C-alpha cells in the first residue's frame, strides 16, 4: 500500500475535515507494514472501507428556548463500522462540534471498541448545541428534539449512544426518556443511564478509573510505583474528576485541572478536602475551576485562557479535556520538567508533533484509544446487564474493568514491543484493533 497516495486521495475527497484526516493518518501510518503482510487486505480494498464511515446521518434540531425563541442546531450520528458488533459510541454537545470532529471520533471509537474485548462497533454523534448556560428545561427540550430525529436510527442491537463532552447523566436521562416514548420499549439503547433505570454501577467513574488502571500497567513495565508521583490532569469534567479521584486514593498528587476558560495549578497537589470542593463546584453547581483558585490564592495559581502543561512540574500527564489540547511546545515543556509518562483520558489530546516528541524521548505514552477505553468498556457491561435484566455489584464491574484494561495493555505490548524492549503503544493499539476488525470484515464479505 502506498500510504502517501492513500492519504492524498482522502485529503482531496474530504478537504475540510482536518481532525478526521489527522486521526486516519496516525492509524494508517502505523499499520502500513502489517497491512502489506496480508495481500487479502488490499484485494478487498479494506483500508478504504475501514476509513470511510458506513453512514452519516445529519439533521436539523429545532427547539424553543426559555424566552420563546425558536433555535436551530445541527445534529449528527456517524455510524462508522459495525463489523464486530452494534454501532457504539458517545454523543457530544459542544459549540465546536462539526462533521470532521465527529468523523474522527467515530473512526477512533471503532479501534478503541475493538480493543475492549467486547462486541461493539464504532460510532459517534452530537450537536453544536452547548448545554453550558442553558436551563434544565432548555436542555431537556433540546435533548427531546435531538432524539425525535435520531430514534429511528438507533436500537439495542443497532446503535447504542452514550455520553461524551457536554453529555452526562442528565442529558442521557432526557434522551433515553424521549427514545422510550417514541419506541414504547424499555431496552438498553443508551448507556450511562441513571442507576434507577438500567444504568451500571461504576459507569460514571469508568473512563477515569480505567485510565489510571492502564497507567498502573504501564508503570509496572518499568517497575515504577504511582505513590507520591505528581500528576498533571487537564479538564475538570467526567473523565478528569474520576481520574483525579482514583489517583488520590492511590497516593498520587494531582497538581492541575482546567476548563475552557483556563487552568489551575496546585504545585503540592490537592488535598482530599480540596478535591471534594472542586468536585462540588463542577458537578453540583456546574461552575468554573477559577472559582476554586479564587478561594485558595495561597496554594493555587490560575492561568487564564491557558493550558496547564507549561506551568506544571509533574512526573505524569493525563490530558482529559479535548482533542489537540497538548502541542509540540507543551510536550517539550513537559519532558523538560521531567515528565516520564503520558496516559490520554481525552480522545486525540496530543497533536502529532507532541506524540512524536514523547516517542522520541522513549517515555511511556498511551494513546486515548487504549487508555480511555474503560468508559466504553463499562458501557458494554451495561448493555450486557440490560439484556440479561440483572445488576452487577460495583466490585464486580470494577474488577471486570481492571481485567479489561490489563487485557488492552497486553494487546498493546504484544503488537507494539520493539527489539530494544520499548513499547510503541500507538502501533500496538492500532495494530491489535485493526487486525480484529479487518478479519471480521473479510469474513463477512464486501458490503
Ligand atoms: P465533560 O463535558 O464532562 O468535560 C469536558 C472537560 O473538558 C470540561 O472541563 C471542559 O471545560 C473541557 N473542555 C471541553 N472542550 C474544551 C475546549 N475546546 N478547550 C478546553 N477545554 C475544553 O466531558 P468528558 O470528561 O466526558 O470528556 C473529556 C474527554 O474525554 C473528551 O475528549 C471525550 O471525548 C473523552 N472521553 C470521554 C469518555 C466518557 O466516558 N465520558 C470516554 C472516553 C473518552 P468546560 O467546562 O469549560 O466546557
Ligand atoms: O469516547 C468514548 O469512548 C466515549 N465517549 C464513551 C462511549 C460510550 O459508548 O460509552
What is shown here, in short?
With 447 residues, the protein is α/β, with parallel strands linked by helices. The chain has helices at residues 3-13, 18-37, 39-43, 46-51, 99-115, 136-150, 169-183, 203-220, 238-249, 272-283, 289-295, 328-336, 352-360, 368-371, 374-388, 394-416, 425-444; strands spanning 55-64, 70-81, 87-93, 122-127, 159-162, 230-233, 253-259, 262-265, 301-304, 316-318, 341-343, 364-366.
Characterization of the model:
The chain is α/β, with parallel strands linked by helices and 447 residues long. The chain is 49% helix and 15% strand. It contains 17 helices and 12 strands. The strands form 2 sheets. A 7-stranded mixed sheet has the order 9-8-7-6-10-11-12, with helices on both faces. Helix 8 crosses helix 9 and helix 15 (374-388) crosses helix 16. The longest helix has 23 residues, at 394-416. 52% of the residues are buried. The mean pLDDT is 98. Bound molecules: NADPH dihydro-nicotinamide-adenine-dinucleotide phosphate and (2Z)-2-iminopentanedioic acid. (2Z)-2-iminopentanedioic acid binds next to strand 3, helix 5 and helix 15.
List the helices and strands and how they pair.
Elements (H helix, E strand, L loop, with lengths): L2 H11 L4 H20 L1 H5 L2 H6 L3 E10 L5 E12 L5 E7 L5 H17 L6 E6 L8 H15 L8 E4 L6 H15 L19 H18 L9 E4 L4 H12 L3 E7 L2 E4 L6 H12 L5 H7 L5 E4 L11 E3 L9 H9 L4 E3 L8 H9 L3 E3 L1 H4 L2 H15 L5 H23 L8 H20 L3
Parallel strand pairs: 3-4, 3-5, 6-7, 6-10, 10-11, 11-12
Antiparallel strand pairs: 1-2, 2-4, 7-8, 8-9
Helix pairs in contact: 1-2, 2-5, 2-17, 5-17, 6-7, 8-9, 8-15, 8-16, 12-13, 15-16, 16-17
Bound molecules: NADPH dihydro-nicotinamide-adenine-dinucleotide phosphate and (2Z)-2-iminopentanedioic acid.
The site of NADPH dihydro-nicotinamide-adenine-dinucleotide phosphate has 25 residues, from α9.
Amino acid at each position: 500500500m502506498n500510504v502517501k497516495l492513500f492519504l492524498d486521495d482522502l485529503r482531496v475527497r474530504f478537504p475540510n475535515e482536518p481532525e478526521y484526516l489527522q486521526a486516519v493518518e496516525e492509524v494508517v501510518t502505523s499499520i502500513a507494514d502489517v497491512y502489506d503482510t496480508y495481500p487479502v487486505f488490499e484485494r478487498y480494498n479494506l483500508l478504504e472501507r475501514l476509513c470511510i464511515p458506513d453512514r452519516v446521518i445529519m439533521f436539523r434540531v429545532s427547539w424553543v428556548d426559555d424566552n420563546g425563541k425558536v433555535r436551530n442546531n445541527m445534529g449528527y450520528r456517524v455510524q462508522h463500522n459495525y463489523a464486530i458488533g452494534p454501532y457504539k459510541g458517545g454523543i457530544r454537545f459542544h459549540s465546536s462540534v462539526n462533521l470532521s470532529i465527529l468523523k474522527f471520533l467515530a473512526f477512533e471509537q471503532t479501534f478503541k471498541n475493538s480493543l475492549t474485548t467486547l462486541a461493539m462497533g464504532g460510532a459517534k454523534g452530537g450537536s453544536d448545541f452547548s448545554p453550558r448556560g442553558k436551563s434544565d428545561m432548555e436542555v431537556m427540550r433540546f435533548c427531546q428534539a435531538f432524539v425525535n430525529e435520531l430514534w429511528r436510527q438507533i436500537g439495542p442491537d443497532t446503535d447504542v449512544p452514550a455520553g461524551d463532552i457536554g453529555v452526562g447523566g442528565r442529558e442521557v436521562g432526557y434522551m433515553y426518556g424521549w427514545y422510550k416514548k417514541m419506541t414504547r420499549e424499555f431496552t438498553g439503547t443508551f448507556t450511562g443511564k441513571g442507576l434507577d433505570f438500567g444504568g451500571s454501577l461504576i459507569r460514571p467513574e469508568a473512563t477515569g478509573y480505567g485510565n489510571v488502571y492502564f497507567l498502573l500497567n504501564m508503570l509496572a513495565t518499568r517497575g515504577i510505583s504511582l505513590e507520591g508521583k505528581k500528576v498533571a490532569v487537564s479538564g475538570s469534567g467526567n473523565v478528569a474528576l474520576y481520574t483525579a479521584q482514583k489517583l488520590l486514593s492511590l497516593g498520587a498528587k494531582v497538581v492541575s485541572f482546567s476548563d475552557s476558560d483556563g487552568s489551575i495549578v496546585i504545585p503540592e497537589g490537592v488535598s482530599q478536602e480540596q478535591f471534594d470542593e472542586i468536585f462540588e463546584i463542577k458537578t453540583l453547581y456546574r461552575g468554573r475551576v477559577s472559582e476554586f483558585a479564587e478561594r485558595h490564592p495561597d496554594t493555587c495559581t490560575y492561568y487564564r485562557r491557558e493550558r496547564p502543561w507549561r506551568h506544571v512540574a509533574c512526573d505524569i500527564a493525563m490530558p482529559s479535556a479535548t482533542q489537540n489540547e497538548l502541542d509540540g511546545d507543551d510536550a517539550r515543556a513537559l519532558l523538560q520538567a521531567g515528565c516520564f509518562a503520558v496516559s490520554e483520558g481525552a480522545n486525540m489530546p496530543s497533536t502529532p508533533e507532541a506524540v512524536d516528541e514523547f516517542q522520541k524521548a522513549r517515555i511511556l505514552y498511551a494513546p486515548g484509544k487504549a487508555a480511555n477505553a474503560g468508559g466504553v468498556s463499562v458501557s458494554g457491561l451495561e448493555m450486557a446487564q440490560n439484556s440479561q435484566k440483572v445488576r452487577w455489584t460495583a466490585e464486580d464491574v470494577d474488577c471486570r474493568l481492571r481485567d479489561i484494561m490489563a487485557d488492552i495493555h497486553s494487546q498493546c505490548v504484544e503488537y507494539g514491543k520493539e527489539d530494544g524492549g520499548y513499547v510503541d503503544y500507538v502501533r500496538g493499539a492500532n495494530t491489535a484493533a485493526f487486525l480484529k476488525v479487518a478479519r471480521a470484515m473479510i469474513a463477512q464479505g464486501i458490503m
